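[SOLVED] Need 3D model of a two-part complex

Original post:
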Amino acid sequence: MIFKYRFGNPIPTDTVVKESEVREDAVPFVTVLEGESISYEMADADIVYGLGENVRGINKRGWTYCSKCSDQPHHQEDTHSLYGAHNFLVVSGKETFGLFLDYSGVVSFDVGYTTKNGLVITPADWNFDLYILTGESVPAIVKEFRGMVGRSYIAPKWAFGYGQSRWSYMTADEVRQVVKKHRENDLPLDSVYLDIDYMERYKDFTLNEEAFPNFEDFVRELAEENIHLVPIIDAGVKKEDGYSVYEEGMEKGYFCTKEDGSPFVAAVWPGHAMFTDFLNSEAREWFGNQYAFLLDKGIDGFWNDMNEPAIFYTEDRLKEAFEKLDGFKGKNLAMEDFWALLDVTGSLSGNEEDYKTFYHEMNGQRIRHDKVHNLYGYNMTRAAGEAFERLSPDKRILMFSRASCIGMHRYGGIWQGDNKSWWSHLLMNLQMSPALNMCGFLYTGADLGGFGSNTTEELLLRWLAFGIFSPLMRNHAARDTRRQEIYEFEDIPAFRSILKLRYRLLPYLYSEYMKAALDNEMYFMPLAFAYPDDPRAARVEDQLLVGESLMIAPVYQPNAGGRYVYLPESMRMFRLKRDGSLESSILEAGDHYVEIPADEMIFFLRKGHLLPMAEGGNSVPEVDFENLTVFAYPDDGEVSYEYYHDDGVGKDYDNPENRAVITVSGDVRGYEVTV
Amino acid sequence: MIFKYRFGNPIPTDTVVKESEVREDAVPFVTVLEGESISYEMADADIVYGLGENVRGINKRGWTYCSKCSDQPHHQEDTHSLYGAHNFLVVSGKETFGLFLDYSGVVSFDVGYTTKNGLVITPADWNFDLYILTGESVPAIVKEFRGMVGRSYIAPKWAFGYGQSRWSYMTADEVRQVVKKHRENDLPLDSVYLDIDYMERYKDFTLNEEAFPNFEDFVRELAEENIHLVPIIDAGVKKEDGYSVYEEGMEKGYFCTKEDGSPFVAAVWPGHAMFTDFLNSEAREWFGNQYAFLLDKGIDGFWNDMNEPAIFYTEDRLKEAFEKLDGFKGKNLAMEDFWALLDVTGSLSGNEEDYKTFYHEMNGQRIRHDKVHNLYGYNMTRAAGEAFERLSPDKRILMFSRASCIGMHRYGGIWQGDNKSWWSHLLMNLQMSPALNMCGFLYTGADLGGFGSNTTEELLLRWLAFGIFSPLMRNHAARDTRRQEIYEFEDIPAFRSILKLRYRLLPYLYSEYMKAALDNEMYFMPLAFAYPDDPRAARVEDQLLVGESLMIAPVYQPNAGGRYVYLPESMRMFRLKRDGSLESSILEAGDHYVEIPADEMIFFLRKGHLLPMAEGGNSVPEVDFENLTVFAYPDDGEVSYEYYHDDGVGKDYDNPENRAVITVSGDVRGYEVTV
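Solution:
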């Protein structure tokens, strides 16, 4: 059941698509101190799920999180905000309920940090809708919430293949080389990503013609090898006379303005840049139409970046900084002075004050940016998503974003931002994924191997062994880091067998993804969602369910020869050997230590479930989604699996013919059957 | 066996105290490419132990470490250098041997990072002694190494009590309050630390008379409550006319100089400061004598800080920085320019070039600092340690340092630097401890609860549950972080029972510490050191042996209700309840999941071993070290324990009367006996 309450005059976020009536009675469960906070006293054993893209565990207790879209490359235990603003959580325990704050501003969630059992939510101002959701279980509450905010974005099937990225592949020849090396080494690949350097001096919707000559031909050439090129689009539009996007946006008044009405300019990758007013529906439409520049050249996938929006500096603040710096000259700086000096330059980027100096035109109202900060990246991606419906009505386009807010999940996925080549970020990838699913973000994944810092072969192997279950499966690394393409490492056979398993699992993974999107279900689930009566399952922070049939338990520590796995019930364990063969055995319910060398991996098939698998291939089109081998761990009696299958391109999602039921009778026990 | 080889003309480090003959034959095990690297091809299963104070696991494989004493507050997975330079490692596996580089300069250790199995050691220049050590086991090799570098520093017994610290307790009254709150809450305490603000404007060997009036009386007042005040001493000496330490050091020429012979000045806490030339034995003696200023006031413990040495900035570089900054004025800065601008200020502190601009006078030779960088903190602490032998010949003085190098372990302990309130740093604390023991650093500990960032009650509880086993047990937090004294939290009874357990364990912990120091043994050991034939034990990265009788398995993850424990053999598990009672049970060898609520903790007594315990107390002098209860898990037959016990103050360490043997016959099985 959904309980909706309104405080003040909320700025419309367009997050909720299913209307509920505003209630006037007391808000259930929580204590509302109007103008101050919304709070709840948790029991010791309560678990708090949700909050989407944030650091720390599946259970969010023990820290303070702040919904404020931030260009934050340091994903540390003490980080409060990442790129997304995801104000949905579920308290599970003494009382079980969901809570969603439909709000465009900054909000903090103290989840048992200040006091052990205090959950305290503090919005920056009191203009928002508060939703309380109840249901018979945590997944039921999530499903209710997901129904309220609308169907999640559906990616084309090819985007479930493996993608290789780097900041940046600088030329067409470098891209060709990446493809060639994968193909030569018998490593599957479906996409190569273009980071900022493919553009002409970081200008959106332009091409560096020298580095990427005859782009349309190049896109076609790659398409013939089943490779999709996926260019990046940045939020900032370069301020440069003669650059048509800039000139047209200026002429039409589609960029954000300062208080005095003059254009707001801030520096990002291209230097001085303009910020499209994505909250203005006309500007949104205009920006969305720009994607045609690349769609027309055969591009069918994009990633939107820098749309928190990131600001490196504003001219005003830089000027002020230079004045302040002059004040330090010639002094014997004691520590306080010295820190103050460092802070002058250190606070240039992402400065909160800058976000208070520009304005949007939204439904005829002029609104200061900080009031709607969390809607910015959302509406950039919405601009693209709405445009794709117009420009490509019959063909899905890949779209994922860095910044996000719930609501944006209908227009695109997200990647988990600029992580690092840290083992702890592999675990964070796992822990964040179900929280994102709760908030509607199904097409997600982290930069496998880690974006910043230098990876190691073992880390990349282990990360891929988790990443093959992620809808978005992309290896991405930053400039000046160690090369991270698989063929740069020693044990290519071990990588190959893991990558090929992804392609063998695709029928199942894609089917589960589609059902999760269409039926408002979870794709990645904490164990407790499926085993609510098992108190041990509730504490498991390093295993996940993937769809209805699989459980995974990745290795996320260096130099480990294996790991502990907790089984709430008996499961069939599969072991992938380095030669690509799969072995399996039945493990009883309970605790197990499983040896897992770095060149092997394991996963589990749940009792009473089926796993359809394909022969695999080196790209998605090579995978035969129709002739399947079904692995079974049937309970007593017969067991069936609802298999979703479509062409992966069109949008006839709800056609009942896309769903088939595979049934296996109960006399097979841990063996495969071909259907 | 010790194999010593000499390359070039090494600068004497005084690290090795037991001479070996220089050999001329080929270096065993490793490949030496003179002028380039020392390398070894590891087997897949080889484990590399050692390297002292570094990030990452007990097994150092999979990263590159650099011995270069660094003021590095970011202890991340991708950090290469912390505060210490500890060039000793042991390869265990296909071949087992120790390797030590006796060298004063920077050296990098690539331990299976660039290639999976390559161990590559690269010194900055080729003037060093290389030692290869062999023995019948890893602990035997460590013991041989420890014998070669001399007996570890021995702290006074009171320094095994709990210490409370903060940057900074600003007044005597604030210190009194800290003591009072502990005593009122029945929380044991033996020391309070004074961070930099107790001094008069950060001048070493001065007192802020306003904040700490009648200091001598204050020290005495606290001593009556069994509280020791432990002031900090910084490496930099404030440049200020009229300040006697500065003036005398200048007059005598005891400070480091620039190439032209003029004094080298760099800014640290007090602003412009001088750097005592600790490598000059006269200057070392002079600086050591300064500690008398505080010893004479009743102080009997110190911590040496900022002695990498940290440099905030040099005047020359700051001037250059301002010039560079001027060059950016008025420009439209594209990204590269902008990063360059940020780098101007970002590279002011700890700039490598600055370390090449000053000189030492060492044995009549003028040596540029970067050649002997890693000896600086070592010799600051040596200055203190040598002075204490002169000034306090009969009474031990507490001394621990931030920067260190092997050799310094004879003069003081170290704390594990400016860590953060991160769960991962609790695990790092555990993993680093045996590596430090290998290098001779026995009196060590991390800032419990974390120094930087904000702690949580659960993190502090779990960290203390590990920290009670650490010789140095100190709760320390940075300025501007959440108050971290135990009484600031909700569940004081849970903290109390953990803290009191420390005092009940003191007879054992102190005895094990003393035996480790006197017999060149490990205090904290990886499981593999004691169970070398157990391949599972070799991979355990989150359990340690503490002395000969105990094994610990701390909880180091948030919101965990328990953890997995691996037992190489049957052990007696003790569970501390929140009321302070101990329950125990026998666990069989193998894997166990153990429930451990945050207000409880567990530890294990090994089979065939004894655990002597005292009644406890709220300070070390209150603990009765003579009337003990001995817990036993006897194997068949009788079992004995060598109990080391002395007054904890004097230096008659080798008196055979300090060692008694406790014997329990085999008919008790998991029960206590009073001896």
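Edit: The two ends of chain A are 41 Å apart (CA to CA).
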